[in-house]
Structures are given as C-alpha cells and as structure tokens.
Amino acid sequence: MGNREALLDGATQCLYDKGYARTTARDIATAAGVSLAAIGYHYGSKEALLDAALQRAIESWGDRLAGTLADAGRAGGAEQFERTWAGVLASLAEDRPLWAVQFELIAHLQRTPELRHSYAEATRRARLELATIFGTDPADEATALRIGAFYQALLVGVVGLWLVDPDGAPTSTDLLDAVRTVGARLAPG
C-alpha cells in the first residue's frame, strides 16, 4: 500500500476515533505511518484528505448496503420497503462512527463553503442512489431526485433518532406502518 492509500486509511480511522473537527494532520500522519508532508503532497490539505476519506467511507457503506439489499429489491411494494429498511437499520450498527461524523459535519458546513459544496454534491448522488435502492427508475432523474430526497430525509431522521436512542428508534415495520397511515390520510376523499 502506498502513502496515498495509507493516508486515506489513517484519515478514516481518525474520523471514526476523534471526529472531523478534532482530527489533526499529525494524528493522520501518525495513524498512516507517513510523514506530515505527505498529506500536502498527496491531498493538498488535511481537510481535502478528510473529505476524501469520508467520501470513500460513504461510498463503501453504499456499496455494502446495495449488496445486502439486492434481494429486497425483488420483493416489490410494501415488502420491498420493509425489507430495504430492515437492511438499512441493520447497517447502522456496523457504521455508527460514519453516521456520527456526518452529523458532526453538518454543524461545520456553514463555516466551510468548500466542504458544503462537496457535501451538497455527495448528497445529490446519494439521493439518486437511494431512489434506485428503493426501486425508482433512475432514468427519470427529476423524479428520482425527488423520491431520493424523501428517502434521504427519512434516513437522516431515523439515523438521528438511532444515534440518540438505538432502542427507541423506529423499526422497519414501524416505518412501513407510518407511511401507510400518512398515505391513507393523503388519499383523496
């Protein structure tokens, strides 16, 4: 493994152990077993490296989740919704540090325009990915973005509840029942 990959691995570990704001360049260099100058050489800045590490971690989570949920997508309808959310909720325990870091970053977005821009682009890609995971045809991008935004809002809310109180967070069955109840209230007549 070269210095570039070692830095990504070290930055990911630091993100999970210390969070975004408390991680120093020295922490990353030490975790990666490389010189401090390697960060500037390969990434330009500590922030660019942390952003790359976070992006890689999010993509890895998405890839693992998509693999886990491949069978859920074949079910269709309510069963697909419930099975997909069961898979998402199960993944939270494995990736708790990833979600904690993302919530931490939300507080920094207003003070860091370049981070806000990269996070906004990642959010857009996540919406399309979520729409696909939940069975929306990505060919109609406008519809996929709207539906993906709905699932993203639901996901962020569920993750927030889960981070605060894992035992009190809604289950996949709870989510399905809530969507059915809301949907029934929105039906005409």
UniProtKB/TrEMBL annotation:
GO molecular function, one term: transcription cis-regulatory region binding
Superkingdom of the source species: Bacteria
InterPro entries named among the record's database cross-references: Homeodomain-like_sf, HTH-type_TetR-like_transc_reg, HTH_TetR, Tet_transcr_reg_TetR-rel_C_sf, TetR_C_31
DNA-binding region: 24-43
Assigned keywords, A-Z: DNA-binding
Pfam families listed in its UniProt record: TetR_C_31, TetR_N
Residues of the HTH tetR-type domain: 1-61
PANTHER family the record matches: HTH-TYPE TRANSCRIPTIONAL REGULATOR RUTR, TRANSCRIPTIONAL REGULATORY PROTEIN
Protein name, UniProt field: TetR family transcriptional regulator
